[in-house]
Structures are given as C-alpha cells and as structure tokens.
Amino acid sequence: MNTVVAPTPGAAAAIPKARFDWIPVGLLVAVMLLALPAVGSGSSWLTLTVAGLAMGFIIFIIASGLTLVFGLMDVLNFGHGLFIAIGAFMATTVMGGMATFADTGVLQALLAIFCAMLVAMSVAGALGLAFERVIVRPVYGLHLKQILITMGGMIVGEELIKVVWGPLQIALPLPEPLRGAFIIGEAAIEKYRVLASVIGAVVFGLLAWTLARTKIGLLIRAGVQDREMVESLGYRIQRLFVGVFVAGSALAGLGGVMWGLYQQAVSPQIGAQVNVLIFIVIIIGGLGSTLGCFIGALLVGLMANYTGFLAPKVALFSNIALMVAILVWRPQGLYPVTNR
To answer: Which structural domains are found in the chain, ordered by start?
Structure first.
C-alpha cells in the first residue's frame, strides 16, 4: 500500500526566487560615470546627464505603449507614430487656446500642459481603438501583413493631419514660466527637463505597479506567457488586448505632447521620425519588457547627449552603435521576456 506524504508548511518557502539582474542598471550607472572624465567639467556633465535622462524619460513614455502592445499582443505596430503625431498636434491646439492663461504663472502653465496631455491621451486612445478594430484585428498573427498595413495606416493618418492642421511645421513653445533653467553652481538645469523627468518617473512607477501588483497586470503577464491558458480560465483575453492597445496609444499621445514641447515644434512627420528611436529602445531593452524599455530609453538619451557634446558626428549613429553593442553582448536584449 502506497503512502502519501503531506507537504510540510515550510515546503513552499524552499522554492527559490528569481534574482533581479542588476547588470543593466550597473551599465547605466557606468555610462554616466565614464562620461564624467570624458566631459571634464562637472557642471557640464551634470547638465548633459539631466538632459539625457529627461530625453530618455520622454522616449520611454512613447515606447512603453508599443512595448506593451508587442509584449502582450505580438503585434508589430509600425503605425505607432500616428498616435505620437496626433498627441503632439492636439497639444498645439490646446496650448494655443490656453497660451495667455498659461503665461500668467507656474501653476497655470502646469495646468495648461496637463490639460493638453489629457486631451491628447483621450484622442490618441480613441484613435487607437478604431485603429485596432479596423486595421490591426484582421492581421493578428501575421507579422509581415502587420508591418505593411500599420505603416499604410500611419501614412494615411499623416495625410489627414495635413488636411486638419496643414503640411507645415507648427511651433509649440513652452509657457513663459517653464522657460529658463535652475542654476546649480555652474550647471544650468532646464525647468522643462526636470518636469519631463518627474512625469516619466511617475509613468514608469505606475506601469511597474500595475504590472506587478494588480490583477490586470497578472493577466497581462500571464497572457504574454500563455494566452490559451488564460482563456481556458474564463478570462476574455480579446478585451484585455483591446484595452492594452488603447492604453498604449494613449501613452504614445502623452509622449507626443512631451516630445513636441521638448522640440518646441511639431510636424506631420514627427511620429515617423521618432519611430526609429522607439524600435531601437525596445530592441535594446528586450521585446516586451517594460523595465528593459525603461533602461534602454535612458541609455539612448544619455548616449545622444554625451556624444552630441563630445563628438557631434558620432551622435548621428551613436544609438545604432549602442544597439549593436548590446545585442552582441545580450542577443535578446537587456531584460528578455520571451524567446522572440
């Protein structure tokens, strides 16, 4: 007669936990430290570092939406730039209407920017819902067709933007209270870059908390690993897919506002121009990894600013060189999620 041995209460504690990989974080810190002696001046290094981190935070906001969409839905959405562009142009409309109000004080300027962000996210999310239903849904699982049809959707969208706002570049100046810089010793830290860093950190924190601590995040992570199992448990994964696509589109709209204010001008091609940076970041970070996207975006921002100061000609291809170097070191990216 066989006997069954009941597990002891402490048996579960024996299950080893995965250790966090600190090496990519160490790489980020190493890049900053190695740049200090190369730049030479501590004040210049501080200015460049804050500028690079701010640029990285903005790129992360833009790329995080595409990371979620690809990580959960396995959709190569090359039309992601359309949501960036629509967000930027909605900002020109909102900020233009509130320009006088925004110039009266810091709180008024922040309120105007947050109103522009809210409107941009709402419009980009609604457009994302329509984009998913009409363009993306018929080509689930067909990567080549996804690339072609989403690129076509972005081209059509750019032409429609030209119909509404015109084909020319439109200025998107910062409100007067947010211009200028904070002076720390001999370093000048631009006010908007500080604001962009704070918003980027908040977005990353909310995404990390949602994915790690909520039921929705659990379903998203489970859907990445095994869609069929999640469906067999009774969850409607298709609705989750649509929600993720809308959220990713809204994040792109938010990023479009911040990128437009960063450059203080927008054009119908702004989304297509940023698309290259987005794909570099998600490839560096590991396809579908939010943390990898975050570290990758910061690395790209820092490299662009350091090389732009030290060797402007190298800055033209520094991000490509960074991507190649990281893929040689880690072919699946800094924090790979799945074997894609």
So the answer is: 43-329 (1.10.3470)
